Amino acid sequence: MGVPVEVEKIGGVSETRNSWIRKQTNGVILGATRFVHEHIPGFSPTHLNILGAVEGAAGALVAATRDPYKQGGEKGKTAIAAILTTDGALKDAFDGSLARMIATEDPTKVNFKKGQLYDAASDRTQELSMALSRAWSAHKRGDRFAELAALATAIISPWSSVSRAFAEYRRKRVPESGRGLFGLAGTRVGSAAIGELAMLYPEPKDIRMQAIADSLMVASKIITTADRLRTAFAKGDAVLSEETREDAKTRLMVMGGFAAISLAGSLFTYWRMHRNDPEKVVLRNMETSEYQKLLGNIEQYCQSVGLNHRFVGGTITDLIGPETNYKIEVNQRKVTIINPEKPKVIRSDGSTKDIDMVVFTVDRLKLAEARRTFGDWKERATAQGIVFPQISMEAARYSGLSGINSLRQFVTAWEVDSLYRPYLVFGKIRQQIKLESIAPWTVEAGNGLSITAFNPVAHALCYELRVPSGVKPKDKETIGTYDDWVIEAPYSKKSLIDNLARQTIAEGKNAGVNYNEMYRAWKDYIKTLTEGPDLPTKLKGEITGIYWKTIGTKLTHGLGIFGKLSNFNDRMSG
Predict the structure, then answer these.
(1) pLDDT tens, position by position, 461-489
(2) Side-chain-side CA neighbours of residue 176 (13 Å)
(3) Verdict on whether the full-model pTM lies above 0.70
(4) Residue 387: its H or E element
(5) Residues 131-187: tens digit of each pLDDT
(6) Which of 23, 336, 471, 548 is most buried, with most CB under 10 Å away?
């Protein structure tokens, strides 16, 4: 059998094998191939293909078995997965070079059509294995968006290769590596590198790397596929040889088959992950007593494990109504709510309440264990047909542990430096605040409910410093009217908590505590954030302002179709 024109040269660059990466690495690959061929003469390209597929699949399997909540203790598995998948991918760089080297010595020893089949099988097996591994890991983390993004990558991945083979079957030349850096993500080299990094480190420093990477690959592969199909159907002369056309025909059949295998494998994986999900039932609302018991259980759990926490947002404010009174004990740092509201998990508008907490701890494993525990509670409640609120825990950033990603930051972050001094941070805006301003207070709301929160003044100010656009419209929205002895006056969540804050300031003055002075730094930060920010913060203020005036409330409350994205919204943090 003769050697096709496109592979007559020992080097790996030709009309179809034309990526800039291949051109830059061709010399190194050729040298390494020659070394292997001289020292292991019986080693064939098929051996490389099989070993690459086995190593890639094994590495993906190891990565999928890691505990997502104990990644710090799973470094061994991460290292093994990295070695296996990297070595498997590297073998893909040498199989073609080795085949061409053997063919120059004895063309009868190489069947390039079969070689293309083995090569394609190895490549697609590795890509599919890593994508399904990422989906499985995302499922264990409870990240539905990342899970679906990984499955979408698995399904769409073969199509850029299918479209390339189709274009070459029509004798049209297409860029092997796509167009530009974005196009590179839709090709074999780009997706292998990005996919492996996302599989090994799905959420480095709380950045949702895997979800971002798979979304990028899906978009890039769609664009690359469309670009190659346009080239295939474009008018113009066919420039590739008949031999290349025949090779492309073989690859087209193989890639089409793997597209079907990828679809079937993805559907099976989805079924396998969700086959034990509880059957759909009509979920009932938590009664007020059940909801209060849940808050008490969360408080008890945090106390038992030493998790320094504060309940924030609506979890506290929803206990306050227009007819609520308070007993404020400044020296004991305690507020007793008299005649509290009776919140339920499902609001009157049909949306689901969430429970928000801020946590000050350097122990990330303890925090991860708490999140897993609350996730287990939710699974049990759902299995019993009870609607369970989303529990969100925002952790303060401690010096030396993790930094703030200013690009993705859209809400104020809490930060603690090496001297344990607290700060409010948004991008370049960094305001030190007094340690006593974040001291824990106790909120008692009857029926034995006692939970930890911020000082009511701090709680009220949190509504103003959350985002650069100021208080969210949903928190300023008029809820109704109440009889204020003589007149009816509108009220909102913000006005209710502001009223409690004013009473706390007054009680503090009587006890010799100046809360206005204690929270002056907070107010300075709010003024800088909302009135005189730098340009990036100002732009984000415009974005958050539009967001909360349009779909923000629906995403947060999980209304209708937006409920599918509410978890993704909850994870957008400082």
Answers:
(1) 998 888 888 887 766 665 544 443 333 45
(2) 14
(3) no
(4) none
(5) 999 999 888 877 888 899 999 999 998 888 888 889 888 888 887 655 555 555 556
(6) 548
- Phi and psi for 25 in degrees, rounded to 5? -100, 0
Domain ranges of the chain: 5-270, 288-570
CA distance 89 to 85: 6
SS3 354: strand
- Using CA atoms of 403, 407, 409, 415 in order, give the dihedral in degrees to the nearest 10: 20
The CATH class that applies to domain 5-270 reads: mainly alpha
DSSP 283: P
Contacts 24+ apart (CB under 8 A), 264-273: 265/128, 265/132, 265/154, 266/131, 266/132, 266/135, 266/151, 266/154, 266/155, 269/132, 269/135, 269/136, 269/151, 269/154, 270/135, 270/151, 273/135, 273/136, 273/139, 273/147
Single-letter amino acid, residue 549: K
The enclosing H or E element of 67 equals: none
Q: Is there a contact between 228 and 160 (Cβ–Cβ < 8 Å)?
A: yes
Look at the chain and count its residues.
Answer: 574
Helix (H, G, I), strand (E, B) or coil at 559: coil
Classify residue 488 as exposed, middle or buried by CB count within 10 Å of its CB (0-12, 13-18, 19+): exposed
Contact 501, 456 (CB under 8 A): yes
Show the tokens assigned to 168.
């070459």
Residue 209: which of 134, 159, 262, 283 has the closest Cα? 134
Closest by CA position to 467, among listed 392, 393, 552, 395: 552
HEC secondary structure over 419-434: CCCEEEEECCEEEECC
Closest alpha carbon to 499 in 353, 328, 385, 329: 328
**Exposed, middle or buried: residue 332 (CB in 10 Å: 0-12, 13-18, 19+)?**
exposed
d(CA 510, CA 191): 65
Q: Which long-range contacts (CB under 8 A, 24 or more apart) does 274-279 make?
A: 278/379, 278/382, 278/383
For 420: left if phi > 0, alpha if psi spans -120 to 50, otherwise beta; the answer is left
> 3-class SS at 130?
helix
